[in-house]
């Protein structure tokens, strides 16, 4: 075998040519006639052939006739099933285990019963002394000079590298999954794959966040990385940290080295891993969606996409909570994006043509596609209108062409075009639960986040984010950034394609299109039959008109108002004496727009009705 020394690295290739490695092939003279694999002893070859190729199970249980390949497996079965020997009992609870290792795992995960061994060089903690010694040997003491040229894994000695090449890269994968064109090296790996991927079984639950996993190893890494926040593997090129060494290697290969060895023969797109190429071909070129939701019949390309859909849409679970504002999300990725863009104010994606920055890559791609390329790829098949995103096209077809699925309320049979509108209606109209009450003014809120914002802004008067240009203050950084963009930069990035009116916020554009151009009044008052284009207007109407709420008091005359805007108009006109509205016919001035309108109708309008 050739040994190539390069910058203190010894890379051992698979082309065995020299006589230096006498242990690799010379002593393996017994070859399997089925797969041509060589063994040192004839007995080892026979055992291999009987267990792997013939699937022989020579060890039979005399009580239940179950058969096993190995005597150790039969003994373990006999102890656990028939003798009832659960010799290892947990001293914290009454649970018993067959193996001591199972008891140790139970105590570590369920009771956190452990003694930490701390590394004196990096302060990382371990549950056993052997794990600490192994860590110190790998990271702080031994140089790994032997590098596998296939996967970049390093080894401290040549023997370890040879064993790795023989077992990982040369070993055949004889166990094929009949549902998925994937092969495995052992039957146990195949069974794990079938259990977790095709059956969707997740038997290992985290006791902190109730997230479930198919394998106990995945549960362990989840608890280590998420709840203990241990990320000990850092990239030496971008300083990003990872909880798994494999994740670091994958990150280095895909982002910094990027060897894309697998090319699609249909579109020439290249991938770093064969499994990514396989998924691309199934999803893009074959259009396969093999996983169907049993509740709404929606189809998905991958099983975990379907599981995530069921958890967030049908169960309404939001397991990821922001530790800064307590807002909850159904997906961890959405939480991370929220924290990065809202609380950190980061905009990591910059347009190389106009230098505009975005918090999410998808927003940058939409910007480049529309502004610089002029593309609108999604066309309506009923009219010739085109849209940037598929979701916008879907909403257009629902509202304009009535090609929609209505969501009906089970209590009052009212219908809504969006599921979230139905849920909001049920929460307000039928449940009306406001479990979070302010202890200062007894105002109630449906969400804890709304209560916290109310306390901070109304009672504490806190506005911690100041604009350095006009010194105006805001409750959070997101509002400050929006203020700077729309007021000081005068940016109106969202244009209406029907009237060319521009808006500073996308949500305002969508509301404008819905209420002005589509004329939609989807929110009806169940007390007076008034209809509104926005849910917020309906809620405000019910609070001020029907419930008689007047939450905004003037601090000068103690007069109360139902709307904050009414209070501001009162203070400007009455206490400040400002008259900003001038009649264009007689130049008379008024303190608010309603007085001006009333004046024009009464004085200047020829259609006077004194009845």
Main features:
single chain, 611 residues, alpha+beta, Double Stranded RNA Binding Domain, four-stranded mixed sheet, two-stranded antiparallel ribbon, 42 strands, 39% helix, elongated, disordered C terminus, Znf_C2H2-type, metal-binding, zinc, Znf_C2H2_sf, zinc ion binding
Largest sheet: 4 strands, mixed
Q: What is the name of the CATH class of the domain at 407-576?
A: Alpha Beta
CATH topology of the domain at 407-576: Double Stranded RNA Binding Domain
Radius of gyration: 34 Å
What gross morphology would you assign?
elongated
Please name the fourth-level CATH homologous superfamily of the domain at 407-576: Classic Zinc Finger
Helix content: 25-40%
In CATH, the architecture of the domain at 407-576 is: 2-Layer Sandwich
Query: Structural class of the helix and strand makeup?
Result: alpha+beta
For the record, give the distance between the C-alpha atoms at the N and C termini, rounded to a whole number: 109 Å
Strand content: 5-15%
Number of strands: 42
- List low-pLDDT spans: 1-26, 607-611
Summarize model confidence as the mean pLDDT: 74
